[in-house]
Write a structure and sequence with these properties.
- This protein is α+β, with helices and mostly antiparallel strands and 238 residues long.
- The chain has one domain (24-237).
- The protein is built from six helices and ten strands.
- It has helices at 2-45, 53-58, 123-130, 187-194, 200-204, 215-237; strands spanning 61-65, 79-88, 91-92, 96-101, 115-120, 133-135, 142-144, 163-169, 172-175, 182-185.
- Strands 1, 2, 3, 4, 5, 6, 7, 8, 9 and 10 form a ten-stranded mixed sheet that branches.
- Strand 8 (163-169) and strand 9 form a beta hairpin.
- Helix 1 (2-45) packs across helix 4 and helix 1 (2-45) runs parallel beside helix 6 (215-237).
- The longest helix is centred in the N-terminal third of the chain and has 44 residues, at 2-45.
């Protein structure tokens, strides 16, 4: 009898523990979405020192990893976690949760509170992102992004570079070297927000509805791209 009660109590405790972990994972994922909104808003608040209008306008996907270094992103060590969204025929896709690990962050190593922003610029980069796991190998596939209101005419970001990377530390944006990093789906956060495992490709292709908790993030992405597009058109007509 005593053994039966013990097993029953262990089962109850295990159930509550599972619910607690699920709740914690959801809270963490929602907090990451909200932090990513803050990063995007910061980009738009500093147009002269942020991501160029042409780059934002032409980006096919945006990936934000808030507090990357603070979260333990170190060469050969822990990883950062963030969210991504891609442009579809109907607008921007629901957010896909990602982890970014490994690789070298150049001079940024050792800094705290560094936000990572990655922009996928062409179809080749998009297909790699949709694969749910890919490595930023360099050799034209990834490069530190240009900074300022407009991208320099001498850069080849529009024609050849698949992914442009940026960092934000203490309010300052800069291009970030991130070769060798691996981007893959964050399954735990995916299940926490969507209630089940979703295919990475299906989410980013627009086949999954945006959950209510992610609506502010998608709105921020859409507004940032629209503001950049309007500003670019105004510049071209002058």
């Amino acid at each position: 009898m005593k053994k039966t009660l013990t097993l029953l109590l262990m089962g109850i405790m295990g159930t509550f523990g599972t619910y607690a972990l699920a709740g914690s994972a959801r809270e963490d994922s929602v907090a990451r979405l909200n932090s990513s909104v803050d990063v995007i808003n910061a980009i738009m608040a500093t147009p002269d020192k942020g991501i160029p209008e042409e780059v934002l306008t032409n980006a096919k996907c945006i990936l934000v990893v808030p507090n990357m270094i603070k979260g333990g992103f170190v060469f050969g060590g822990k990883h950062g976690r963030g969210v991504a969204s891609c442009r579809t025929a109907e607008g921007w896709s629901a957010p896909a949760f990602v982890s970014v690990g490994g690789g070298s962050a150049g001079f940024q190593i050792g800094l705290e509170g560094v936000d990572l922003v990655m922009l996928v610029m062409n179809d080749k980069g998009l297909q790699q992102l949709l694969s749910s796991k890919f490595e930023l190998t360099g050799e034209g596939s990834v490069a530190a992004g240009p900074v300022g209101r407009h991208a320099s005419a001498g850069t080849d970001w529009k024609m050849t570079t698949e992914v442009l990377t940026y960092s934000r530390s203490k309010g300052v944006f800069a291009g970030l070297t991130l070769e060798g990093a691996v981007v893959e789906q964050d399954n735990d956060s995916t299940r926490a927000i969507y209630g089940e495992q979703m295919e990475f490709r299906n989410i980013l292709s627009g086949k999954v509805a945006t959950p209510k908790s992610a609506e502010p993030f998608i709105k921020a992405v859409a507004e940032a791209r629209e503001k950049a597009h309007i500003a670019e058109v105004r510049t071209d007509t002058k």
